[in-house]
Amino acid sequence: MKNEPQSVVLKTREKWELILEGLVTIGLLLLLNFAVIILIDQAINSNQGLIDGIYQIKQAVTIGPWHLWSWQRIFFIALAIFDIIVVYWRLIRRYHQMQMRHIIDELHFIASGHLDHRVNLKVSGYLNQVIDSINALVDSTVNSMVEERKIEASKDELITNVSHDIRTPLTSIMGYLGLIENGQYENQDEILRYNHIAFEKTKQMKSLVEDLFEFTKVQQTHAKLQVTTFDLVSMLEQLTADFELEAQKHQILIEVDVVQRPIMMTADSGKLVRVFSNLIVNAFKYGNEATKITLSAHQEKTDVVISVANDGRRIPQKDLENIFERFYRVEGSRSAETGGSGLGLAIARSIVKLHNGEIYATSEENETAFNIILPLNTDQEEN
């Protein structure tokens, strides 16, 4: 909760500065007024015609014994108003300078390392804009520093996770090749078995390296999209055909459920194929007890909504909140059987973001769905 702004409390020295400023200004104005009065009086007295004109005007506005008009009176009133305005302007100007001095002191305090502090002074006019700009700049700097720390921690985490996921199969490869190298086998079949295990571990490492390369590529801010126009429905049908054998191997039915045909969109078809492929592979690996994978799509105004759903076991809510984080796996899913780099969903999210889209997961008792919202026309210049 933001604290109420505090009024600027002047120091004793500053109060005396204001008093001295006022006294000096009043003294100078009195000298100026005296000089002006003398000059005007001499000018009037040296001009008889001007004296007569003033007398006639004075007689015209006289009622009985009262003179309703006197040039001296009007002149004195005008000088007094002018003097008050000048004194007020000078004091306000000096007061604003003092306020600015306090703002600068606050800024120096923040610059000395107190980044959690904000300028919280009650001022007006342009000084209030100055304070807002300073606080906004400090907030932006703090957010940048926090983001930089997150990026640095994220890099360290990436290195740690990659090192762990590469070291595990690499240790197995070296172990089995070491057995062959040292002749610790009984027959040719055992050599072939050791070699096959090492080969499978090598493929696992290759898959991890490829996913890591793809992830770092789509994470780059200058990544460009190869935009083309294509039919989304045809793409989804082609994907189901490509994964038909894999689906039969897992005893899962894979199908496309689309009412509207065609759905023409402009995007990077190659990258979107990678997104949908990752979601389908994820369903094969982690859709426990699933019997069906359904790819659906429909148009909503200028967007298209795509869903890759399966009827497997429900994913806990706490996992849904983190499932798109790199190297994150649902509890119990990290195993030699499922394998995987843990980057598939992170890559999917990054590609969707490149298309200015949104991806999220929902999981109910009978269906887990990965939903994607994409603009029908992706502006290449925005990427």
Automatic annotation (TrEMBL):
<dbReference type="Pfam" id="PF02518">
    <property type="entry name" value="HATPase_c"/>
</dbReference>
<keyword id="KW-0418">Kinase</keyword>
<dbReference type="InterPro" id="IPR004358">
    <property type="entry name" value="Sig_transdc_His_kin-like_C"/>
</dbReference>
<dbReference type="InterPro" id="IPR036890">
    <property type="entry name" value="HATPase_C_sf"/>
</dbReference>
<keyword id="KW-0902">Two-component regulatory system</keyword>
<keyword id="KW-1003">Cell membrane</keyword>
<dbReference type="InterPro" id="IPR003661">
    <property type="entry name" value="HisK_dim/P_dom"/>
</dbReference>
<dbReference type="InterPro" id="IPR005467">
    <property type="entry name" value="His_kinase_dom"/>
</dbReference>
<dbReference type="InterPro" id="IPR036097">
    <property type="entry name" value="HisK_dim/P_sf"/>
</dbReference>
<feature type="domain" description="Histidine kinase">
    <location>
        <begin position="161"/>
        <end position="378"/>
    </location>
</feature>
<keyword id="KW-0597">Phosphoprotein</keyword>
<dbReference type="Pfam" id="PF00512">
    <property type="entry name" value="HisKA"/>
</dbReference>
<feature type="transmembrane region" description="Helical">
    <location>
        <begin position="20"/>
        <end position="40"/>
    </location>
</feature>
<keyword id="KW-0472">Membrane</keyword>
<keyword id="KW-0067">ATP-binding</keyword>
<dbReference type="InterPro" id="IPR050398">
    <property type="entry name" value="HssS/ArlS-like"/>
</dbReference>
<dbReference type="InterPro" id="IPR003594">
    <property type="entry name" value="HATPase_dom"/>
</dbReference>
<keyword id="KW-0808">Transferase</keyword>
<keyword id="KW-0812">Transmembrane</keyword>
<dbReference type="GO" id="GO:0016301">
    <property type="term" value="F:kinase activity"/>
</dbReference>
<feature type="transmembrane region" description="Helical">
    <location>
        <begin position="74"/>
        <end position="92"/>
    </location>
</feature>
<keyword id="KW-1133">Transmembrane helix</keyword>
<protein>
    <recommendedName>
        <fullName>histidine kinase</fullName>
        <ecNumber>2.7.13.3</ecNumber>
    </recommendedName>
</protein>
<keyword id="KW-0547">Nucleotide-binding</keyword>
